[in-house]
Amino acid sequence: MADIRTCAEAFFAFFLAVSLPFCGSASGATAQNSVKVDILYESKCPFCFSWLKEELHPAVEHLGDDVLRKANIVFDPLPFGNAKEIPDGKGGFSFECQHGQSECYLNKVEVSLVLQREAGRSPLLLSRYERAFSLLNADVDYGRHMQI
């Protein structure tokens, strides 16, 4: 995993080096000149959770909040992942999620949390994700394996 973490950190460093000259300063930063990074994930996917916890979060922590704020980078979590939209014939939709109905429910809960957040930083997302994942994951052995 160290190689992947190094790659993630290198990617963010390169990303910042390229984008920083085009971004406003922290004091003049606005939503219009922010760099938005969409993160699509599945709420009950062990691989998504592992990537958030073991790769993205450490890379963001390594860079530091000051660097992200100065570059005006905003992480936008999108809990949808590998789901299907199924038209209901009445103008609405139902959803079918890869990991079952509990994942669809958790996706809806997380969308509500995302809509209420003040800033899209990964520690906030990770904290919510860990709590929700540990509460809704019925496989106790898997939870122990992931140390949640």
Automatic annotation (TrEMBL):
Cellular localization per UniProt: Secreted
InterPro entries: Interferon-induced_GILT (IPR004911)
Name listed for the protein in its UniProt record: Gamma interferon inducible lysosomal thiol reductase (GILT) protein
Keywords assigned by UniProt, alphabetized: Glycoprotein, Secreted, Signal
Domain of life: Eukaryota
A GO MF term: oxidoreductase activity, acting on a sulfur group of donors, disulfide as acceptor
TM annotation in the entry: none
A GO term from the CC aspect: extracellular region
Main localization (coarse): secreted
Signal peptide: 1-31
Similarity comment: family membership: Belongs to the GILT family.
